[in-house]
Specification:
Largest sheet: 7 strands, parallel
Helix content: 25-40%
Radius of gyration: 24 Å
Distance between the termini: 50 Å
Bound molecules: flavin-adenine dinucleotide
Shape: globular
Amino acid sequence: MPHVITQSCCSDGSCVYACPVNCIHPSPDEPGFATAEMLFIDPVACVDCGACVSACPVGAISPDTKLEPKQLPFVELNAAFYPKREGKLPPTSKLAPVLEAPRVERGDGPLRVAIVGSGPAAMYAADELLTQQGVEVNVFEKLPTPYGLVRAGVAPDHQTTKRVTRLFDGTTRLPGFTFYLNVEVGNHVSHRDLLEHHHAVLYAVGAPNDKRLDVEGMNLPGTGTATEMVAWINGHPEFAHLPVDLGHERVVVIGNGNVALDVARILTTDPDDLARTDIADHALAALRDSKVREVVIAARRGPADSAFTLPELIGLTATHEVVLDRADHELVQRDLAECTDPLTRNKLEILSKLGDADTPASRRRIRFAYRMTPQRVLGTDRVEGMAFTVTGGDDVRTLPAGLVLTSIGYRGRAIRDLPFDEETGVVPNESGRVVGAPGTYVAGWIKRGPTGFIGTNKSCAAQTVHELVGDFNAGALRDPRGRPVHLDRLIRARQPELVDVAGWKAIDAAEVARGGDDRPRDKFTEISDMLAAAATAPKPTMRERLLAGLGL
Ligand SMILES: Cc1cc2nc3c(=O)[nH]c(=O)nc-3n(C[C@H](O)[C@H](O)[C@H](O)COP(=O)(O)OP(=O)(O)OC[C@H]3O[C@@H](n4cnc5c(N)ncnc54)[C@H](O)[C@@H]3O)c2cc1C
Protein backbone atom coordinates (compact mmCIF):
# COMPACT_ATOMS: atom_id res chain seq x y z
CA MET A 1 0.00 0.00 0.00
CA PRO A 2 2.44 2.70 -1.03
CA HIS A 3 1.45 6.34 -0.98
CA VAL A 4 1.00 8.22 -4.23
CA ILE A 5 1.48 11.87 -5.18
CA THR A 6 -1.31 13.18 -7.38
CA GLN A 7 -2.04 16.05 -9.70
CA SER A 8 -2.24 18.91 -7.20
CA CYS A 9 1.44 18.47 -6.15
CA CYS A 10 2.89 21.95 -5.52
CA SER A 11 6.52 20.75 -5.42
CA ASP A 12 7.43 22.67 -2.25
CA GLY A 13 9.30 19.63 -0.96
CA SER A 14 7.73 19.54 2.55
CA CYS A 15 6.94 15.85 2.04
CA VAL A 16 10.58 15.12 1.16
CA TYR A 17 11.78 16.16 4.62
CA ALA A 18 8.90 14.44 6.42
CA CYS A 19 9.67 11.08 4.80
CA PRO A 20 11.68 8.86 7.19
CA VAL A 21 13.12 6.73 4.36
CA ASN A 22 13.92 9.40 1.73
CA CYS A 23 11.65 7.82 -0.87
CA ILE A 24 10.33 11.06 -2.46
CA HIS A 25 12.27 12.53 -5.37
CA PRO A 26 13.58 14.67 -6.91
CA SER A 27 14.45 16.35 -3.59
CA PRO A 28 15.36 20.07 -3.51
CA ASP A 29 19.10 19.28 -3.49
CA GLU A 30 18.88 17.02 -6.56
CA PRO A 31 19.31 18.07 -10.18
CA GLY A 32 15.98 18.17 -11.95
CA PHE A 33 14.05 19.47 -8.91
CA ALA A 34 13.50 22.92 -10.42
CA THR A 35 12.10 21.55 -13.67
CA ALA A 36 10.23 18.44 -12.44
CA GLU A 37 6.51 18.48 -13.27
CA MET A 38 5.77 17.04 -9.82
CA LEU A 39 7.44 14.92 -7.11
CA PHE A 40 7.18 11.12 -7.08
CA ILE A 41 7.03 8.47 -4.33
CA ASP A 42 9.09 5.33 -4.87
CA PRO A 43 6.50 2.53 -4.32
CA VAL A 44 9.20 -0.01 -3.55
CA ALA A 45 10.85 2.06 -0.82
CA CYS A 46 7.70 3.64 0.70
CA VAL A 47 7.02 2.25 4.21
CA ASP A 48 3.47 3.57 4.15
CA CYS A 49 3.84 5.62 7.35
CA GLY A 50 1.76 8.54 6.04
CA ALA A 51 4.17 11.22 7.33
CA CYS A 52 4.16 12.80 3.86
CA VAL A 53 0.36 13.11 3.94
CA SER A 54 0.47 15.37 6.99
CA ALA A 55 3.38 17.38 5.62
CA CYS A 56 1.87 18.04 2.18
CA PRO A 57 0.33 21.56 2.22
CA VAL A 58 -2.03 20.87 -0.70
CA GLY A 59 -3.52 17.45 0.10
CA ALA A 60 -1.87 15.85 -2.93
CA ILE A 61 -0.83 12.55 -1.30
CA SER A 62 -3.00 9.48 -0.60
CA PRO A 63 -2.45 5.77 0.01
CA ASP A 64 -3.00 3.94 -3.27
CA THR A 65 -6.09 2.26 -1.82
CA LYS A 66 -7.83 5.60 -1.27
CA LEU A 67 -7.39 7.14 -4.69
CA GLU A 68 -10.40 8.28 -6.69
CA PRO A 69 -10.75 6.50 -10.05
CA LYS A 70 -9.56 9.61 -11.89
CA GLN A 71 -6.35 9.56 -9.78
CA LEU A 72 -5.39 5.95 -10.59
CA PRO A 73 -3.03 6.90 -13.47
CA PHE A 74 -0.80 8.56 -10.85
CA VAL A 75 0.10 5.13 -9.37
CA GLU A 76 1.93 4.27 -12.58
CA LEU A 77 3.28 7.80 -13.00
CA ASN A 78 4.93 7.75 -9.53
CA ALA A 79 6.39 4.28 -10.13
CA ALA A 80 7.66 5.19 -13.62
CA PHE A 81 10.05 7.77 -12.14
CA TYR A 82 12.10 4.94 -10.58
CA PRO A 83 13.86 1.95 -12.11
CA LYS A 84 11.78 -1.24 -12.17
CA ARG A 85 12.48 -3.51 -9.16
CA GLU A 86 10.63 -6.43 -7.61
CA GLY A 87 9.29 -6.59 -4.02
CA LYS A 88 10.05 -4.07 -1.30
CA LEU A 89 13.33 -2.43 -0.33
CA PRO A 90 14.36 -3.06 3.29
CA PRO A 91 13.39 -0.03 5.41
CA THR A 92 16.21 2.46 6.01
CA SER A 93 16.56 5.43 8.32
CA LYS A 94 17.99 7.62 5.58
CA LEU A 95 16.67 11.18 5.51
CA ALA A 96 16.89 13.70 2.69
CA PRO A 97 19.63 16.23 3.45
CA VAL A 98 17.95 19.30 4.91
CA LEU A 99 19.10 22.58 3.39
CA GLU A 100 20.49 24.56 6.27
CA ALA A 101 18.50 27.64 7.31
CA PRO A 102 20.57 30.85 7.31
CA ARG A 103 21.51 31.91 10.86
CA VAL A 104 21.45 35.52 11.97
CA GLU A 105 24.73 35.91 13.80
CA ARG A 106 24.61 39.56 14.87
CA GLY A 107 23.23 40.23 18.32
CA ASP A 108 23.05 44.04 18.13
CA GLY A 109 19.33 44.42 17.45
CA PRO A 110 16.76 42.83 15.17
CA LEU A 111 17.16 42.28 11.43
CA ARG A 112 14.30 44.26 9.83
CA VAL A 113 13.12 43.22 6.37
CA ALA A 114 10.38 44.69 4.17
CA ILE A 115 8.84 42.19 1.73
CA VAL A 116 6.84 43.59 -1.19
CA GLY A 117 4.04 41.27 -2.35
CA SER A 118 2.29 38.47 -0.46
CA GLY A 119 2.27 35.63 -3.01
CA PRO A 120 4.07 32.31 -2.46
CA ALA A 121 7.59 33.76 -2.87
CA ALA A 122 6.90 36.49 -0.29
CA MET A 123 5.29 34.12 2.22
CA TYR A 124 8.00 31.46 1.90
CA ALA A 125 10.65 34.19 2.34
CA ALA A 126 8.88 35.55 5.45
CA ASP A 127 8.65 32.03 6.86
CA GLU A 128 12.33 31.34 6.21
CA LEU A 129 13.34 34.62 7.90
CA LEU A 130 11.10 34.07 10.91
CA THR A 131 12.48 30.60 11.69
CA GLN A 132 14.70 32.42 14.16
CA GLN A 133 14.24 35.02 16.86
CA GLY A 134 15.23 38.63 16.51
CA VAL A 135 13.92 39.08 12.97
CA GLU A 136 11.09 41.44 12.03
CA VAL A 137 9.29 41.17 8.71
CA ASN A 138 6.81 43.70 7.31
CA VAL A 139 4.88 42.38 4.31
CA PHE A 140 3.36 44.98 1.94
CA GLU A 141 0.58 43.93 -0.45
CA LYS A 142 -1.33 46.23 -2.80
CA LEU A 143 -4.62 44.33 -2.42
CA PRO A 144 -6.60 44.07 0.84
CA THR A 145 -6.32 40.26 0.50
CA PRO A 146 -3.04 38.33 0.47
CA TYR A 147 -1.43 35.33 -1.30
CA GLY A 148 -1.10 36.55 -4.90
CA LEU A 149 -1.82 33.99 -7.59
CA VAL A 150 -2.88 31.32 -5.10
CA ARG A 151 -6.04 33.37 -4.59
CA ALA A 152 -6.27 35.02 -8.02
CA GLY A 153 -4.64 32.51 -10.38
CA VAL A 154 -5.05 28.90 -9.23
CA ALA A 155 -8.28 27.64 -10.78
CA PRO A 156 -11.30 27.40 -8.45
CA ASP A 157 -11.79 23.69 -9.19
CA HIS A 158 -8.29 23.07 -7.77
CA GLN A 159 -9.31 23.78 -4.18
CA THR A 160 -6.76 21.41 -2.67
CA THR A 161 -3.96 23.50 -4.22
CA LYS A 162 -5.43 26.60 -2.59
CA ARG A 163 -5.01 24.86 0.79
CA VAL A 164 -1.39 26.06 0.78
CA THR A 165 -2.85 29.33 2.14
CA ARG A 166 -3.23 27.57 5.51
CA LEU A 167 0.54 27.31 5.62
CA PHE A 168 0.82 31.00 4.79
CA ASP A 169 -1.80 31.90 7.45
CA GLY A 170 0.48 30.05 9.91
CA THR A 171 3.38 32.32 8.93
CA THR A 172 1.27 35.43 9.66
CA ARG A 173 0.94 34.21 13.26
CA LEU A 174 4.71 34.02 13.86
CA PRO A 175 6.22 36.60 16.24
CA GLY A 176 7.82 39.41 14.25
CA PHE A 177 5.34 39.24 11.30
CA THR A 178 3.32 42.33 10.30
CA PHE A 179 0.94 42.68 7.34
CA TYR A 180 0.44 46.01 5.57
CA LEU A 181 -2.29 44.99 3.12
CA ASN A 182 -3.92 47.49 0.74
CA VAL A 183 -0.58 49.32 0.62
CA GLU A 184 1.06 49.64 -2.79
CA VAL A 185 4.80 50.13 -2.89
CA GLY A 186 5.55 52.82 -5.49
CA ASN A 187 2.24 54.51 -4.72
CA HIS A 188 1.63 54.77 -0.95
CA VAL A 189 5.27 54.20 0.04
CA SER A 190 8.45 54.41 -1.98
CA HIS A 191 11.47 52.13 -2.22
CA ARG A 192 13.46 54.80 -0.40
CA ASP A 193 10.87 54.94 2.46
CA LEU A 194 11.25 51.18 2.90
CA LEU A 195 15.05 51.26 2.81
CA GLU A 196 15.07 53.99 5.49
CA HIS A 197 13.10 51.80 7.88
CA HIS A 198 14.58 48.36 7.15
CA HIS A 199 17.95 46.70 6.66
CA ALA A 200 16.71 45.16 3.42
CA VAL A 201 13.80 45.28 0.96
CA LEU A 202 12.83 42.04 -0.78
CA TYR A 203 10.59 42.31 -3.84
CA ALA A 204 8.34 39.32 -4.57
CA VAL A 205 5.91 41.07 -6.90
CA GLY A 206 5.46 38.29 -9.48
CA ALA A 207 5.30 38.68 -13.26
CA PRO A 208 1.88 40.26 -13.85
CA ASN A 209 2.18 41.26 -17.53
CA ASP A 210 0.98 38.92 -20.27
CA LYS A 211 3.13 38.48 -23.32
CA ARG A 212 1.14 40.08 -26.18
CA LEU A 213 0.39 38.46 -29.50
CA ASP A 214 1.17 40.94 -32.21
CA VAL A 215 -1.38 40.13 -34.94
CA GLU A 216 -4.09 42.20 -36.60
CA GLY A 217 -7.34 42.43 -34.65
CA MET A 218 -5.96 41.61 -31.18
CA ASN A 219 -7.61 44.79 -29.82
CA LEU A 220 -11.16 43.93 -30.97
CA PRO A 221 -13.84 43.44 -28.33
CA GLY A 222 -13.89 39.71 -27.59
CA THR A 223 -10.10 39.38 -27.43
CA GLY A 224 -8.18 39.09 -24.18
CA THR A 225 -5.72 37.00 -22.26
CA ALA A 226 -6.20 33.78 -20.36
CA THR A 227 -4.74 35.39 -17.23
CA GLU A 228 -7.33 38.18 -17.31
CA MET A 229 -9.99 35.50 -17.70
CA VAL A 230 -8.60 33.50 -14.75
CA ALA A 231 -8.47 36.68 -12.64
CA TRP A 232 -12.13 37.38 -13.56
CA ILE A 233 -13.10 33.80 -12.69
CA ASN A 234 -11.26 34.13 -9.37
CA GLY A 235 -12.83 37.49 -8.45
CA HIS A 236 -9.66 39.64 -8.53
CA PRO A 237 -11.05 43.15 -7.86
CA GLU A 238 -9.16 44.71 -10.80
CA PHE A 239 -10.82 42.25 -13.21
CA ALA A 240 -14.28 41.81 -11.68
CA HIS A 241 -15.87 44.04 -14.33
CA LEU A 242 -14.19 42.50 -17.37
CA PRO A 243 -16.77 42.39 -20.19
CA VAL A 244 -16.81 38.61 -20.79
CA ASP A 245 -19.34 37.57 -23.43
CA LEU A 246 -20.08 33.83 -23.55
CA GLY A 247 -23.10 34.14 -25.86
CA HIS A 248 -21.47 32.18 -28.72
CA GLU A 249 -20.50 28.57 -29.39
CA ARG A 250 -16.72 28.60 -29.60
CA VAL A 251 -13.76 30.05 -27.66
CA VAL A 252 -10.22 29.90 -29.06
CA VAL A 253 -7.27 29.87 -26.65
CA ILE A 254 -3.89 30.47 -28.26
CA GLY A 255 -1.06 28.65 -26.45
CA ASN A 256 -1.32 25.30 -24.69
CA GLY A 257 0.31 25.63 -21.27
CA ASN A 258 -1.37 24.73 -17.98
CA VAL A 259 -3.17 28.09 -17.73
CA ALA A 260 -4.76 27.52 -21.16
CA LEU A 261 -5.96 24.14 -19.85
CA ASP A 262 -7.33 25.83 -16.69
CA VAL A 263 -9.40 28.29 -18.72
CA ALA A 264 -10.68 25.65 -21.13
CA ARG A 265 -11.58 23.34 -18.26
CA ILE A 266 -13.55 26.00 -16.37
CA LEU A 267 -15.41 27.06 -19.54
CA THR A 268 -16.50 23.46 -20.18
CA THR A 269 -17.20 22.28 -16.60
CA ASP A 270 -20.77 21.77 -15.42
CA PRO A 271 -21.62 25.01 -13.54
CA ASP A 272 -23.27 22.93 -10.79
CA ASP A 273 -19.83 21.47 -10.02
CA LEU A 274 -18.25 24.92 -10.04
CA ALA A 275 -20.96 26.12 -7.66
CA ARG A 276 -19.24 24.07 -4.94
CA THR A 277 -15.98 26.03 -5.34
CA ASP A 278 -14.92 29.59 -4.50
CA ILE A 279 -15.48 30.79 -8.07
CA ALA A 280 -16.63 34.44 -8.19
CA ASP A 281 -20.42 34.83 -8.27
CA HIS A 282 -20.34 36.93 -11.47
CA ALA A 283 -18.35 34.21 -13.28
CA LEU A 284 -20.65 31.44 -12.10
CA ALA A 285 -23.71 33.38 -13.30
CA ALA A 286 -22.09 33.98 -16.73
CA LEU A 287 -21.11 30.30 -17.03
CA ARG A 288 -24.66 29.20 -16.21
CA ASP A 289 -25.89 31.32 -19.16
CA SER A 290 -22.97 30.35 -21.40
CA LYS A 291 -23.67 29.18 -24.97
CA VAL A 292 -20.11 27.91 -25.40
CA ARG A 293 -19.98 24.33 -26.74
CA GLU A 294 -16.31 24.01 -27.65
CA VAL A 295 -12.99 25.49 -26.54
CA VAL A 296 -10.16 25.07 -29.06
CA ILE A 297 -6.65 25.16 -27.58
CA ALA A 298 -4.44 26.08 -30.52
CA ALA A 299 -0.66 25.62 -30.48
CA ARG A 300 1.93 26.79 -32.97
CA ARG A 301 4.01 23.62 -32.71
CA GLY A 302 3.21 19.91 -32.81
CA PRO A 303 1.93 17.48 -30.15
CA ALA A 304 5.41 16.49 -28.90
CA ASP A 305 6.03 20.14 -27.98
CA SER A 306 2.84 20.54 -25.97
CA ALA A 307 3.54 22.98 -23.12
CA PHE A 308 1.04 21.56 -20.60
CA THR A 309 2.39 19.18 -17.95
CA LEU A 310 1.57 15.48 -17.87
CA PRO A 311 -0.23 15.62 -14.48
CA GLU A 312 -2.54 18.37 -15.78
CA LEU A 313 -3.26 16.41 -18.98
CA ILE A 314 -4.10 13.30 -16.95
CA GLY A 315 -6.41 15.36 -14.72
CA LEU A 316 -8.16 17.04 -17.65
CA THR A 317 -8.78 13.93 -19.71
CA ALA A 318 -10.14 12.07 -16.67
CA THR A 319 -13.00 14.52 -16.23
CA HIS A 320 -13.59 16.25 -19.58
CA GLU A 321 -14.35 15.38 -23.16
CA VAL A 322 -11.18 16.24 -25.07
CA VAL A 323 -10.87 15.57 -28.81
CA LEU A 324 -8.50 15.95 -31.76
CA ASP A 325 -9.35 16.23 -35.42
CA ARG A 326 -8.06 13.63 -37.87
CA ALA A 327 -5.02 15.64 -39.05
CA ASP A 328 -3.89 16.14 -35.45
CA HIS A 329 -4.33 12.42 -34.67
CA GLU A 330 -1.93 11.79 -37.57
CA LEU A 331 0.56 14.29 -36.10
CA VAL A 332 0.40 12.47 -32.76
CA GLN A 333 1.12 9.13 -34.45
CA ARG A 334 4.03 10.68 -36.36
CA ASP A 335 5.51 12.16 -33.15
CA LEU A 336 5.01 8.87 -31.29
CA ALA A 337 7.00 7.03 -33.95
CA GLU A 338 9.95 9.41 -33.48
CA CYS A 339 9.84 10.29 -29.77
CA THR A 340 12.18 8.64 -27.28
CA ASP A 341 11.71 10.88 -24.23
CA PRO A 342 9.56 8.88 -21.74
CA LEU A 343 7.66 11.91 -20.35
CA THR A 344 6.75 13.17 -23.82
CA ARG A 345 5.82 9.64 -24.95
CA ASN A 346 3.48 9.45 -21.99
CA LYS A 347 1.75 12.67 -23.09
CA LEU A 348 1.55 11.48 -26.71
CA GLU A 349 0.05 8.15 -25.67
CA ILE A 350 -2.72 9.96 -23.80
CA LEU A 351 -3.30 12.25 -26.81
CA SER A 352 -3.46 9.23 -29.13
CA LYS A 353 -6.40 7.83 -27.15
CA LEU A 354 -8.51 11.00 -27.36
CA GLY A 355 -11.79 10.98 -29.25
CA ASP A 356 -12.35 12.22 -32.75
CA ALA A 357 -13.53 15.79 -33.35
CA ASP A 358 -15.91 14.51 -36.08
CA THR A 359 -17.99 12.64 -33.49
CA PRO A 360 -20.93 14.79 -32.39
CA ALA A 361 -20.30 16.25 -28.93
CA SER A 362 -22.47 15.01 -26.08
CA ARG A 363 -21.46 17.90 -23.79
CA ARG A 364 -19.21 20.96 -23.79
CA ARG A 365 -15.81 19.84 -24.96
CA ILE A 366 -12.19 20.83 -25.52
CA ARG A 367 -10.28 20.37 -28.76
CA PHE A 368 -6.50 20.47 -29.03
CA ALA A 369 -5.30 21.85 -32.37
CA TYR A 370 -1.65 21.73 -33.48
CA ARG A 371 0.64 23.49 -35.94
CA MET A 372 -1.58 26.55 -35.97
CA THR A 373 0.29 29.84 -36.40
CA PRO A 374 -1.98 32.79 -35.51
CA GLN A 375 -2.45 35.06 -38.52
CA ARG A 376 -5.23 37.54 -37.64
CA VAL A 377 -8.40 37.96 -35.63
CA LEU A 378 -11.50 38.00 -37.84
CA GLY A 379 -14.32 40.51 -37.38
CA THR A 380 -15.00 44.21 -37.75
CA ASP A 381 -16.81 45.48 -34.63
CA ARG A 382 -16.02 42.45 -32.46
CA VAL A 383 -14.39 39.04 -32.73
CA GLU A 384 -16.00 36.65 -35.21
CA GLY A 385 -13.18 34.13 -35.51
CA MET A 386 -9.50 33.48 -35.80
CA ALA A 387 -7.39 32.81 -38.90
CA PHE A 388 -4.29 30.62 -38.65
CA THR A 389 -1.74 29.44 -41.18
CA VAL A 390 -0.57 25.86 -40.93
CA THR A 391 2.87 26.19 -39.31
CA GLY A 392 5.59 25.97 -41.92
CA GLY A 393 3.11 26.29 -44.83
CA ASP A 394 0.69 28.68 -46.50
CA ASP A 395 -2.62 26.90 -45.96
CA VAL A 396 -5.04 29.06 -44.02
CA ARG A 397 -7.46 27.62 -41.45
CA THR A 398 -10.21 29.72 -39.95
CA LEU A 399 -12.19 29.01 -36.83
CA PRO A 400 -15.42 30.91 -36.10
CA ALA A 401 -15.30 32.05 -32.45
CA GLY A 402 -16.77 34.74 -30.20
CA LEU A 403 -13.83 34.95 -27.80
CA VAL A 404 -10.09 34.72 -28.56
CA LEU A 405 -7.75 34.47 -25.57
CA THR A 406 -3.97 34.36 -25.65
CA SER A 407 -2.01 32.28 -23.17
CA ILE A 408 1.57 32.60 -24.33
CA GLY A 409 3.41 33.45 -21.14
CA TYR A 410 4.12 36.26 -18.70
CA ARG A 411 6.61 39.01 -18.10
CA GLY A 412 7.73 40.88 -15.03
CA ARG A 413 6.98 44.62 -14.83
CA ALA A 414 9.74 47.16 -14.16
CA ILE A 415 9.87 48.39 -10.53
CA ARG A 416 10.51 52.07 -9.99
CA ASP A 417 14.09 52.80 -8.72
CA LEU A 418 15.31 49.27 -9.57
CA PRO A 419 17.19 48.00 -12.63
CA PHE A 420 15.15 45.91 -15.09
CA ASP A 421 16.15 43.57 -17.90
CA GLU A 422 13.71 44.34 -20.74
CA GLU A 423 14.71 41.24 -22.64
CA THR A 424 14.11 38.66 -19.93
CA GLY A 425 11.48 40.65 -18.02
CA VAL A 426 13.15 40.15 -14.61
CA VAL A 427 15.12 42.30 -12.18
CA PRO A 428 18.82 41.49 -12.77
CA ASN A 429 20.11 39.63 -9.73
CA GLU A 430 22.76 37.27 -8.44
CA SER A 431 21.12 34.54 -6.35
CA GLY A 432 18.42 37.06 -5.40
CA ARG A 433 20.71 40.03 -4.63
CA VAL A 434 19.71 42.87 -6.99
CA VAL A 435 22.64 43.99 -9.11
CA GLY A 436 23.69 47.57 -8.33
CA ALA A 437 21.06 48.16 -5.63
CA PRO A 438 22.52 47.53 -2.15
CA GLY A 439 20.03 46.26 0.43
CA THR A 440 17.57 45.14 -2.28
CA TYR A 441 16.63 41.54 -3.08
CA VAL A 442 14.14 39.63 -5.25
CA ALA A 443 12.39 36.24 -5.04
CA GLY A 444 9.82 34.34 -7.09
CA TRP A 445 8.74 35.18 -10.63
CA ILE A 446 10.31 38.67 -10.64
CA LYS A 447 13.65 37.01 -9.82
CA ARG A 448 13.75 33.95 -12.07
CA GLY A 449 10.93 34.52 -14.57
CA PRO A 450 7.47 32.93 -14.75
CA THR A 451 8.30 29.25 -14.37
CA GLY A 452 7.62 26.54 -11.83
CA PHE A 453 4.93 25.72 -9.34
CA ILE A 454 3.86 27.29 -6.07
CA GLY A 455 6.41 25.26 -4.13
CA THR A 456 9.27 26.11 -6.49
CA ASN A 457 9.18 29.53 -4.87
CA LYS A 458 10.17 27.98 -1.53
CA SER A 459 13.72 27.04 -2.51
CA CYS A 460 13.92 30.21 -4.63
CA ALA A 461 13.01 32.37 -1.58
CA ALA A 462 15.35 30.35 0.68
CA GLN A 463 18.28 31.11 -1.64
CA THR A 464 17.51 34.85 -1.52
CA VAL A 465 17.12 34.85 2.26
CA HIS A 466 20.45 33.06 2.54
CA GLU A 467 22.16 35.90 0.65
CA LEU A 468 20.30 38.57 2.61
CA VAL A 469 21.18 37.13 6.02
CA GLY A 470 24.79 36.63 4.89
CA ASP A 471 24.98 40.32 3.95
CA PHE A 472 23.47 41.33 7.29
CA ASN A 473 25.93 39.13 9.21
CA ALA A 474 28.80 40.64 7.24
CA GLY A 475 27.70 44.18 8.14
CA ALA A 476 27.01 45.00 4.48
CA LEU A 477 23.49 46.35 5.12
CA ARG A 478 22.86 49.87 6.38
CA ASP A 479 21.03 50.05 9.71
CA PRO A 480 17.51 51.49 9.41
CA ARG A 481 17.40 55.19 10.21
CA GLY A 482 13.71 55.35 11.10
CA ARG A 483 12.15 53.53 14.09
CA PRO A 484 9.28 51.05 13.54
CA VAL A 485 6.81 53.41 15.21
CA HIS A 486 7.66 56.09 12.63
CA LEU A 487 7.17 53.63 9.76
CA ASP A 488 3.78 52.63 11.13
CA ARG A 489 2.75 56.29 11.42
CA LEU A 490 4.01 57.07 7.94
CA ILE A 491 2.07 54.23 6.34
CA ARG A 492 -1.14 54.98 8.24
CA ALA A 493 -0.88 58.63 7.17
CA ARG A 494 -0.37 57.69 3.51
CA GLN A 495 -2.94 54.87 3.48
CA PRO A 496 -5.50 55.20 6.30
CA GLU A 497 -7.36 52.18 4.86
CA LEU A 498 -4.53 49.72 5.38
CA VAL A 499 -5.55 46.20 6.38
CA ASP A 500 -3.58 44.30 9.04
CA VAL A 501 -3.57 40.62 10.00
CA ALA A 502 -6.74 41.04 12.08
CA GLY A 503 -8.42 42.77 9.12
CA TRP A 504 -7.47 39.93 6.77
CA LYS A 505 -8.81 37.40 9.31
CA ALA A 506 -12.12 39.32 9.37
CA ILE A 507 -12.33 39.34 5.54
CA ASP A 508 -11.47 35.64 5.48
CA ALA A 509 -14.09 34.77 8.13
CA ALA A 510 -16.77 36.84 6.36
CA GLU A 511 -16.08 35.15 3.01
CA VAL A 512 -16.16 31.67 4.57
CA ALA A 513 -19.46 32.52 6.32
CA ARG A 514 -20.95 33.80 3.02
CA GLY A 515 -19.99 30.50 1.41
CA GLY A 516 -22.34 28.61 3.77
CA ASP A 517 -22.25 24.81 3.90
CA ASP A 518 -21.75 24.22 0.17
CA ARG A 519 -18.79 26.40 -0.75
CA PRO A 520 -15.33 26.93 0.78
CA ARG A 521 -15.95 30.69 0.59
CA ASP A 522 -17.90 33.30 -1.36
CA LYS A 523 -15.31 35.91 -2.30
CA PHE A 524 -15.71 39.66 -2.09
CA THR A 525 -14.80 41.12 -5.46
CA GLU A 526 -15.11 44.82 -4.60
CA ILE A 527 -12.42 46.50 -2.53
CA SER A 528 -15.07 48.52 -0.65
CA ASP A 529 -16.71 45.26 0.54
CA MET A 530 -13.33 43.86 1.61
CA LEU A 531 -12.58 47.01 3.59
CA ALA A 532 -16.03 46.97 5.22
CA ALA A 533 -15.40 43.39 6.37
CA ALA A 534 -11.88 44.28 7.58
CA ALA A 535 -13.33 47.18 9.60
CA THR A 536 -15.25 44.69 11.77
CA ALA A 537 -11.94 43.32 13.13
CA PRO A 538 -11.13 44.11 16.76
CA LYS A 539 -8.87 47.17 16.86
CA PRO A 540 -5.50 46.79 18.61
CA THR A 541 -5.39 48.46 22.01
CA MET A 542 -3.20 51.53 22.47
CA ARG A 543 -0.75 49.34 24.43
CA GLU A 544 -0.56 46.75 21.59
CA ARG A 545 -0.03 49.54 19.03
CA LEU A 546 2.69 51.05 21.20
CA LEU A 547 4.48 47.72 21.71
CA ALA A 548 4.23 46.87 18.01
CA GLY A 549 5.48 50.33 17.11
CA LEU A 550 8.44 49.94 19.43
CA GLY A 551 9.19 46.63 17.80
CA LEU A 552 8.52 44.72 21.05
C1 LIG B 1 -3.23 31.63 -13.89
C2 LIG B 1 -2.19 30.87 -13.08
C3 LIG B 1 -2.54 29.65 -12.47
C4 LIG B 1 -1.58 28.95 -11.72
N1 LIG B 1 -1.93 27.77 -11.13
C5 LIG B 1 -1.03 27.05 -10.42
C6 LIG B 1 -1.38 25.81 -9.80
O1 LIG B 1 -2.52 25.35 -9.92
N2 LIG B 1 -0.42 25.16 -9.08
C7 LIG B 1 0.85 25.65 -8.94
O2 LIG B 1 1.69 25.02 -8.26
N3 LIG B 1 1.21 26.83 -9.52
C8 LIG B 1 0.31 27.54 -10.25
N4 LIG B 1 0.67 28.72 -10.84
C9 LIG B 1 2.05 29.23 -10.61
C10 LIG B 1 2.13 29.98 -9.24
O3 LIG B 1 0.96 30.71 -9.04
C11 LIG B 1 3.37 30.88 -9.21
O4 LIG B 1 4.52 30.04 -9.19
C12 LIG B 1 3.44 31.80 -7.99
O5 LIG B 1 2.23 32.44 -7.71
C13 LIG B 1 4.53 32.89 -8.18
O6 LIG B 1 4.69 33.51 -6.95
P1 LIG B 1 5.17 35.03 -6.75
O7 LIG B 1 5.12 35.25 -5.28
O8 LIG B 1 6.43 35.23 -7.48
O9 LIG B 1 4.09 35.95 -7.50
P2 LIG B 1 2.54 36.22 -7.28
O10 LIG B 1 1.81 35.02 -6.80
O11 LIG B 1 2.07 36.84 -8.54
O12 LIG B 1 2.47 37.32 -6.11
C14 LIG B 1 2.85 38.66 -6.32
C15 LIG B 1 2.11 39.55 -5.32
O13 LIG B 1 2.72 40.85 -5.30
C16 LIG B 1 1.69 41.82 -5.20
N5 LIG B 1 2.24 43.11 -5.69
C17 LIG B 1 2.65 43.37 -6.96
N6 LIG B 1 3.15 44.62 -7.03
C18 LIG B 1 3.05 45.16 -5.79
C19 LIG B 1 3.39 46.44 -5.22
N7 LIG B 1 3.95 47.42 -5.95
N8 LIG B 1 3.14 46.66 -3.90
C20 LIG B 1 2.58 45.69 -3.15
N9 LIG B 1 2.22 44.46 -3.64
C21 LIG B 1 2.47 44.20 -4.93
C22 LIG B 1 0.58 41.25 -6.06
O14 LIG B 1 -0.68 41.84 -5.79
C23 LIG B 1 0.64 39.77 -5.66
O15 LIG B 1 -0.15 39.52 -4.52
C24 LIG B 1 -0.27 29.44 -11.61
C25 LIG B 1 0.08 30.65 -12.25
C26 LIG B 1 -0.87 31.34 -12.99
C27 LIG B 1 -0.48 32.63 -13.68
